[in-house]
Amino acid sequence: MKKPRGVADILPGETERWQYLERVIRELTRVYGYREIRTPIFEFTELFQRGVGEDTDIVMKEMYSFRDRRGRSLTLRPEGTAGVVRAFIENGLHKWPQPVKLYYVGPMFRYDRPQTGRYRQFHQFGAEVFGTAEPVADAEVICLLMDFYARVGLRGLQLEINSVGCMSCRQALVAALREYFRGKAGGLCSHCLERVERNPLRILDCKEEGCRELLKEAPVPLDFLCGGCRSHFAAVQKELAACGVSFLVNGRLVRGLDYYTGTAFEVLVPGIGAQSAIGGGGRYDKLVETCGGPPTPGVGFAVGLERTLLALAEQGVELPGAAAPEVFVAFAGERAAGRVPAILRRLRAAGIATERDYSGRGLKGQLKQANKRAARWVVIVGEEELDRGNVSVRAMETGEQVEVPEVALVSWLKERLGQ
């Protein structure tokens, strides 16, 4: 049996790197005041059709949808924000003190073409802020995103920002795009030919080479911003500058989801393949309302963890790996073997990472195992030492060995382990 295409096994040795990222996420979101939310792996398909947008590549081509035994259409979540919005509405979080600041970490699913750093099951870290339309919230989520990358050690990142406008000023942009692409129909892919009349904004996100070429002369959102959107975008830039965050305004930047309004942003890193974006997000002031909730502004981002790990590997950043056991308990003699379980329990209860032999090896073989596992200390339980109420403790780095009273073993080791 083999795993399906586009998924990955994350094995011991690699899982520790994931756990490190997750620790950084949890500590960083704590100091920023975000609280964790965990939503279902699958939702009713309609949520993503309404929330993400029926004309997006995600909904049209990439969702894993199926029918349950009652014939209802369900979909493995292709992104995190729509599910968080549904939970926000269904559980009455709009009644909480505003703004509500949430984050999530978990797997997403898209039937995409597998390539380096891009899988059909992938993992995202996302953050969402509900209940404020102020530019400072846009800047805060961007600062949180950039701080995450800085803490894990990524360098040379490029933050690009844009404004895709509100629903009002976007009408003029849609009209201009429709007129422009009607005259370029011969160069568009089949999907974008349909989008010309249905939703020309989605053409701006197309990855087909022919469409990308036509986009070079296409109208851009910045040229059609109303006064309110223009002021908001200027305030976001001012706030980012005050925070010391460098950015580049990219007037052609749009995100691959229909719910974005106003600010949009992406973080790019060179050297990880053709698609160099490793995270991004934006404002979605109409999404809660679209999904059946009260009018509630929102802004957030999502980070691809696989692509983050790939970028770290490309830059040669070493993340903490598997920790060696701090202590290995060995024994010599049948009576000594009977003491090992109690000693193990006491050490582990004290928070000391402890291992033992499971194969009936002699003392020499056990010491070899301790060395292979890179244990710092070996507790040797011998029958003569037991008669004196002691155990022997060997420092593996120096070979120095001393006897320690068994009742004082935990405190003796914790002192030397820096606990």
Automatic annotation (TrEMBL):
Q: Give the UniProt family note.
A: Belongs to the class-II aminoacyl-tRNA synthetase family.
| GO molecular function terms attached to this record | ATP binding; catalytic activity, acting on a protein; histidine-tRNA ligase activity; transferase activity
Indicate the principal place this protein occupies in or around the cell: cytoplasm
State any GO BP term from the record.
Answer: histidyl-tRNA aminoacylation
- Tell me the ranges covered by the Aminoacyl-transfer RNA synthetases class-II family profile domain, including all copies: 21-320
PROSITE patterns in the cross-refs: AA_TRNA_LIGASE_II
Chain positions recorded as L-histidine binding sites: E79, G80, T81, R110, Q124, E128, R255, Y259, Y260
Give the source species.
Thermodesulfitimonas autotrophica
Instruction: Report quaternary structure and partners.
Output: Homodimer.
List membrane-spanning regions. Answer: none
May I have one GO cellular component term?
cytoplasm
- Put simply, this protein is called Histidine--tRNA ligase
The encoding gene: hisS
Keyword Transmembrane among record annotations: no
